[in-house]
Structure formats: C-alpha cells, structure tokens
Automatic annotation (TrEMBL):
Record PANTHER family: HYDROXYACYL-COENZYME A DEHYDROGENASE, MITOCHONDRIAL, PTHR43561
Domain 3-hydroxyacyl-CoA dehydrogenase C-terminal, first and last residues per copy: 187-281
Enzyme Commission numbers on file: 1.1.1.157
InterPro entries given in the database record: 3-OHacyl-CoA_DH (IPR022694), 3-OHacyl-CoA_DH_NAD-bd (IPR006176), 3HC_DH_C (IPR006108), 6-PGluconate_DH-like_C_sf (IPR008927), 6PGD_dom2 (IPR013328), Mito_3-hydroxyacyl-CoA_DH (IPR052242), NAD(P)-bd_dom_sf (IPR036291)
Protein name per UniProt: 3-hydroxybutyryl-CoA dehydrogenase
Pfam entry (one): 3HCDH
Keywords: Fatty acid metabolism, Lipid metabolism, NAD, Oxidoreductase
Domain 3-hydroxyacyl-CoA dehydrogenase NAD binding span(s) in chain numbering: 4-183
C-alpha cells in the first residue's frame, strides 16, 4: 500500500501524514477547507527540527523530500481517488466518525482499506457505516509518532484477517511497531492504561488537591518517568481531553473539560504543538 489518504490534519493527523511521507509513501492530506490546510506548512516546520533531533539518520534533504510527497486537498473525492489505505483522524466523536466514513465508503475505490485512528471508540460501532466492514479496522498511533512509535491494530469480528495483516504490515513500513490486538477493547492497550491515569490527574486539579506542576513533579520523581500527566496532556493537545470530558457522566471530568476550554483553548493554548498548553514551550 503506497498511496495513503489521511482524513484530518490536526496534531496527530499531521504527524501521521509526515511520518508516512518520510517513510516513502505518497500521502494526501484531507481536511474540510483550504484555510485549515493552509496551516500544514507551519506544522512541517515544527516537525522538521524534532526529526533532526530525535530520528536517527534524519537529514534536511530527507525531510524536504517527505514534504514533496504530501499533497493537500479539501475535496474528498479527489483526496480518495487513488487511495490504497485511508486513515481517519477526525475529532473523537462517534457521530462525526460515522458520518465521515459514510461519505468515504461511497467515494473510495474498491481496493481501499479503511482505518480509524480513534483512541477510545470501537471499530464495530463505525464499521457498518463504511459500506464495506470487512475492510475496516483501527490503526491507533501514540502522539509523537516518530519516537513513540506503536501502531495498535484492532479489528472487529467482521474484519477480513488478510486486511488486518496487511494493515499491520503497512504500520511496520512507516516505522511503527505493530501491536496486534486480538479482541475489541475500548481504549486498546495504550489508552486502557493511559486514560485512567490522566483522569486521576485531572480530578486532583479539579478538586484543588495539588497544582498540575506538583502533580507532574511527584510522578516524575517517584516513578522515574520522563514526563508527568500534564506534560502528556500537552503532547496530546487540549482538544482531546475537552472532547472526551465535556459530555462525560463524571461531573469532575465535565468540570475539567470546561476548565481546559476556559483557561487554555479559548486563549489559543492548545498544547505543545501550538507552543503552549499547561506549560509554555517558547512559541515552538
């Protein structure tokens, strides 16, 4: 599978686009309008120094070649015209994902394999909307894909085993370590571990138990971890905890979502990729 289309060019979508292009794939970056797509050159300029510092063998020439393998389009039919594989990275809401895949299923070539990058939703809740559920599964990336390079591959009961293995192979080809998940699990492996941890940290802040800086400091010192939970929130980006928390059954998580919106999102402090989230990254 050489031709990839990525639906959604936010923090993680743009990382998937760049990583696949760096790995010699031809990539179409799709988003809703040209104004959104106009932000992509700035994302590439943010990612280039990260690759130079953190990816062995990265050179300015290789990074420039990667950018040359990326084409942007706000026309969905055009974006899908020659896709071997589609990875969807739209907002983490079931209704948005279902409606997106309903459109994709009508427009994509018969050859195309379909993947969602959803971090919490089950493939079986989306697959019927694609019109070809046997070709649909999840391929979930961790944030900062060039270094935290797991690719969680999770099908649903109707996924064709050959498609499952082809997607696992594709993940390896773009530098991921395929993690084969044998049974549908909300949160897969990574987020089954990570989300309760981040929720616990959010509740400590909401209930004014400690500052986010001291919560991070406690975790780093006591466990030897390189980053604390609020540094992870900054890597993930503020829109994810907001979207997950605003309609939660848990009052603390709803309050945390409103806190994140009021104190960070409304100020344009969207996380590390935007130069500021809980922490100030100096405009990088």
């Amino acid at each position: 599978m050489q031709n990839l289309t990525v639906l959604g060019t936010g923090v993680l979508g743009s990382q998937i686009i760049f990583q696949a292009a760096y790995s010699d794939k031809q990539v179409v970056a799709y988003d809703l309008n040209d104004e959104i797509l106009g932000n992509l050159p700035a994302r590439w300029e943010y990612l280039k120094p990260r690759y130079l510092a953190e990816v062995p063998g990265a050179t300015p020439e290789k990074l420039a070649a990667a950018v040359g393998r990326i084409r942007a389009s706000s026309d969905l039919a055009d974006a899908l015209v020659d896709a071997d594989i589609v990875i969807e990275a739209v907002p983490e809401r079931l209704d948005i994902k279902q409606s997106t895949w309903e459109q994709v299923g009508k427009l994509a070539p018969e050859k195309t394999n379909f993947c969602t990058n959803s971090s919490t939703l089950l493939p079986s809740d989306i697959a019927p909307f694609t019109g070809r559920p046997e070709k649909f599964l999840a391929l979930h990336f961790a944030n900062e894909v060039w270094s935290k390079n797991t690719g969680e591959v999770m099908g649903h009961p109707g996924t064709d085993p050959a498609v499952f293995e082809a997607v696992a192979q594709f993940a390896a080809e773009i530098g991921m370590v395929p993690i084969r998940i044998h049974k549908e699990q909300p949160g897969y492996v990574l987020n089954s571990l990570l989300v309760p941890f981040l929720n616990a940290s959010a509740k400590l802040v909401v209930n004014k138990v400690a500052s986010f800086e001291d919560i991070d400091k406690t975790w780093r010192i006591a466990t030897g971890a390189p980053v604390g939970p609020f540094q992870i929130y900054d890597i993930v980006g503020m829109m994810t905890p907001y979207n997950l928390g605003k309609d939660s059954d848990d009052a603390d998580m709803r309050e945390f979502a409103e806190f994140v919106k009021r104190e960070y999102i409304d100020k344009g402090w969207l996380g590390k990729g935007a130069g500021r989230g809980f922490y100030d990254y100096g405009g990088q």
